[in-house]
Amino acid sequence: MRRRPPNGQKNNNNMVRLTLIARLSDGLPLAEGLDADKSPELEQAKAQAKAIFRRLAGGGAGGAPPPPGPPRATAEAGALCHHWLVDGGAVFLTSADRAYPRRLAFQYLEELASEFSRLYGPQLESVTRPYAFVKFDTFISKTRRVFQDTRSQRNLSLLSADLQEVSAIMTRNIAEVLGQGEQLDAMAKMSSALASESKRYATRAADLRRQALLRKYVPAAAVVGVVVLVLVLRVWLY
Asked: Which superfamily does 6-189 belong to?
C-alpha cells in the first residue's frame, strides 16, 4: 500500500520538474522556471535540455543546420521525459516525470507560449544576453502550480479531451535526439575534410601539369635558343 506524503505534500513522481525557454535560431536561454530541487538528476536534465536547444539551432561542429523537425516532440530520458514546443521563433521545453500525462505537458507549454508571445514576441530577436526575460519566471511558476495536480477538475477535463493531436507527437529516446546531431556534426566534418582534400588535389594537379609542360617544351626551347644565338653570333662576327 502506497503511503500518503506527509503534511499534505503531493507525490513527487508525477510532476513537472523543469521548464526552460530558448531562442530557436541560436539556442540562447531566455527564461527558466525556478526550482529549489538541485538534484544531480535535475542538473543532468537541464544539460540535456540545453543540448536539445543546440541541436534545434543547428549548433555543434560545422554549424550544419539539422533537418526540419516537428514543432512538438518528446524525448525519453530515464525517469524523465523532455517535451518541447516550437512557437514564434522560441522553443518551450519542460522536463516531467514519465508518469506525467503528455497532453497536460503540451497544454502547459501552449499556455506559456501564448503569454510569452504576447509579452515578448517583438523583442525576441533583438535580445543579446542570456535570460533577458527573467521576469517571465513568475508566470512559469504560477502556471506550473496549476498543472501540477493531475487530478484537479481542470486538468481531468483536459485529459478527457480528444487525444488525436497528442498521439501524433513524435517520441524518441534522448540518445537518438542528441545522436542525430552528433551524426550531423560528423557528416559536416567529413564534408569539410573532403572539400579541403579536393582543393589540395586540384592544386597539386595544376603543379604537375606545369611541370609536364616544362619537361616537354624547355629542351626544344633551349635548342632553338642555342641555334638562334649561333646565328646571331655568325652574323655579328662575319
From this structure: Longin domain (3.30.450.50)
